[in-house]
Amino acid sequence: MPGLPLIHRGCGARVLPLPEVQRRKRARLHSLLHEVMTPENTTRLMLASESNWLPVASFAYSVVTRLRDEETDRR
Questions:
Q1: How far apart (Å, rounded) are the C-alpha atoms in residues 62 and 42?
Q2: Highest taxon of the source (predicted)?
Q3: How far apart are CA 47 and CA 26, in angstroms?
Q4: Which of 18, 22, 27, 60 has its CA 20 to 30 A from that of 68?
Q5: Is the confidence at residue 5, as pLDDT, over 60?
């Protein structure tokens, strides 16, 4: 795969497009929480149980990071 760094070309790993990675993350989070996460219910889901905290916080962090990167790219 010419677009990958040399170290990753021969390993046989499949590289997923970003939308597919994001879809899988959302699906995994939904299966953990048994509910779709929205901006309105994020805090409630985080506080619902100790086991929810890290997955919700990680997903929220990835969304905020992606939005910041997109905003930086637009400037």
A1: 14
A2: Eukaryota
A3: 19
A4: 27
A5: no
